[in-house]
Amino acid sequence: MSRYRRFLILAVCAISMFAGRTFAQGFTVFMPQSNDYSNPFEGPIISPRPLLDVAVWLQRKYGKVITYEEAMPRYSPGLVQEGSDASRKWSLHRAPVRLDVSAILAGANAQNLPDILTAVVAAANTQIPTQHFILKSSKLGFHIIMDKERNQAGTVVDAEPLLDATVTVPTEERSVDKTFKALVGAITLASGVKIDANFGQSEAFSGAEPPTLTWGVESVPARDALISLLQQSATSLSWQLLCQASAQASDEFCALSTTYVLVLGKARCSDKTVLRPLIYDRCKRCPTFLPPPPCEPAPPPELGELQKARDEAVQQAIEQLHQAYGPAESAYFENQLRLYVGSHLQKPRVKGGAQ
Fold first, then answer.
1. CA-to-CA distance for 119 and 134, rounded, in angstroms?
2. β-bridge mates for residue 67, sequence order
């Protein structure tokens, strides 16, 4: 993939981030935006998926893989309808529930994370009686799994986690994206539940172009197969398995989405806190990154408000680049962006001077 094509992909992704936020509010509830999660350290959470909020924040804080799985919601009083048309597709969403684990998280650190997660899941099972979760661990990380939920009659029953299904994927050489889709297809076949595959980290998986691998499994639990697949990655990847209810059972589906492990850190050239993905943190022979360009001094005040506004917009775009890509790609795209701005935008008019 050429660098020019990557630059175009980045532009499309940037547009999609803004369009996707509006779309997600009405339809794709299985793909919440990264900044929409409540902060469980600040107090009680009121959220459709409070344990997911906790998992995301702990993953950000400690850089550890914490996955989340849920079942298809069936209990009508536990759902809220969007709009007045009850027959509209995907208009049913999980109702917000309350969870307070701030006291537990007050003593959290990287060393006691397993104990903290165990206590958080236990608190959720006590405070949210309509659901029940279990916590598992693997070489990849930690896995929060919904194993019980209320059925249509309101009785708490076994949820039959989708990733407990036994799957077989023939061993072949494929692209990483096709390998993931083959696994999700096998889970759909074994579970009988339609599952969408969302995978967008192919280049960070191995650093190769095109990224391919030879992989397969035979008669193993889907979760073990997914762990096996993601262990081949040079970059730590997490996942979320979320389900979308609908008025018609034929419209219901779940989505298995891999995600980068985003960690909180300081932005380059500023004191702002931003989210950065861990890239190539699992590889022994990592690709060589280009050094980032030096920070540029702030424009002098005499350049006026137009210059400042333009520079702020450019800086926001650069921060998004560093969040979406590794150091090598983001450094390249940052240079391209600065060249574009410098060659296509007129310099602001300075008082008393020429343009």
1. 11
2. 143
Cβ atoms within 10 Å, residue 170? 11
- 30 contact partners, CB below 8 Å, separation of at least 6: 196, 240, 242, 243, 244, 254, 255, 257
Q: For residue 3, which of 337, 353, 332 has the smallest C-alpha distance?
A: 332
- Residue linked to tokens 């693997």: 138
**The whole model's pTM is what?**
0.72
Structural element, H or E, at residue 4 = helix 3-26
Residue 187 has a CB neighbour count (10 Å cut-off) of 24
Q: What is the DSSP letter of 191?
A: H
Q: How far is CA 289 from the centre of its chain?
A: 24
Amino acid at 57: W
For helices 3-26 and 327-344, the axis angle rounded to 10 degrees is: 90
236: how many CB neighbours lie within 10 A of its CB? 23
Cis peptide before 297 (omega within 30 of 0): no
Q: Are strands 66-69 and 237-244 parallel, antiparallel or unpaired?
A: parallel
pLDDT digits (tens, 9 = 90+) for 103-144: 999 888 889 999 999 999 999 999 998 999 999 999 999 999
- Among the listed residues 249, 215, 250, the one whose alpha carbon sits nearest the alpha carbon of residue 229: 215
Residue-level length of the chain: 355
Q: What percent of the chain has pLDDT over 70?
A: 74
Percent composition of the chain: helix, strand, coil (DSSP 3-state, to 5): 40, 25, 35
Q: Which two tokens stand for residue 105?
A: 């998280």
> Residues with Cβ < 8 Å from 137, sequence gap 6 or more?
114, 143
All structural domains of the chain with their residue ranges: 31-263
| pLDDT one-digit tens code per residue, 257-277 | 999 998 888 777 777 888 888
Q: Which residues on neighbouring strands pair with residue 136, listed in sequence order?
A: 143
Query: Does 23 have pLDDT greater than 70?
Result: no
End-to-end CA distance of the chain: 39
